[in-house]
Amino acid sequence: MIVNPGIVEYLNSLNRDEHELLDAIEQEARENHVPIVKPETKDLLKFLVLMQKPKRILEVGAAVGFSALYMNQYQDAEGTIVTIERNEKRIQKAKENFKRAKKEESITLLEGDAVSILKELEGTFDFIFVDAAKGQYIHFLEDVLRLLKQGGMLISDNVLQDGDIAKSRYAIERRDRTIHKRMRDYLYTIKNHKELETTILPVGDGVALSLKVGD
Ligand code: SAH
Ligand code: MG
Questions:
Q1: Nearest-atom index, ligand 1, CA of 87
Q2: Is the dihedral of CA 40, 208, 61, 72 positive or negative?
Q3: How confident is the model at residue 29 (pLDDT cuts 50, 70, 90)?
Q4: Which atom of ligand 1 sits closest to the CA of residue 66?
Q5: In the chain, N or C terminus with fewer CB closer than 10 Å?
């Protein structure tokens, strides 16, 4: 944990249950160790969706569909989400969950590897939530920026690697060094990109908020 656990626990205790089915899907996912958004990240996502009012959301990393269902709940009725997942078991579960929530019309699941799916995607999105393999964020970026409309928001989850991101590469286990370097490159890039204004928050496992401001 990046933030004092006692503080996180207290802040999370202020969150209320919101929606019976979503709460059940969330609990099921946590019990099965599916790495869904942390409660404090979820709370931030809700706030950003309500603030930004995105009609079209793109998500990279659906897992079992929890965060997509959660974000959709706070979009206007006509709001839609396109979400990408490559893990077969999770794809099946996500489909089942979208059906349970009667959201098959609003949420589209694209099956396969996001690197290639993003290249093929067209149109623009008002809000993009990147929550997939951390070592690939840097590879998604070019397409993500092409797909993000002016004034749109890019949210990148799990960017602080439990605080390891701030450590020297030599303090990182050898096998984790590639991911460490790629995430540092990613954060440097989104912080310094001429089309983006980015702030990085130590919420959950670290969340970067980037606004597409043009060049
Ligand atoms: N957003 C979800 C959690 C996603 S967990 C939620 O909060 O409810 C990350 C998911 O991204 C995993 O299920 C993993 O299979 C998927 N993933 C990772 N890299 C991917 C890639 N390159 N293409 C497609 N899916 C990917
Ligand atoms: Mg995440």
A1: 15
A2: positive
A3: very high
A4: 8
A5: C
CATH code at position 52 = 3.40.50.150
pLDDT level of residue 97 (50, 70, 90 thresholds): very high
CA 105–ligand 2 middle distance (angstroms): 25
Q: In this predicted structure, what is the pLDDT of residue 2? A: 84
Q: How confident is the model at residue 207 (pLDDT cuts 50, 70, 90)?
A: very high
| Average pLDDT over the chain, rounded to an integer | 95
How far is the centre of ligand 2, averaged over its atoms, from the C-alpha of 87 (Å)? 15
- Average pLDDT (110-129) is 97
Cα–Cα nearest to 69, from 116, 20, 31? 20
What's the number of domains the chain is made of?
1
Dihedral sign for Cα atoms in the order 92, 93, 99, 105: negative
Query: What's the domain range around 189?
Result: 5-212
d(CA 63, CA 57): 16
pTM: 0.97
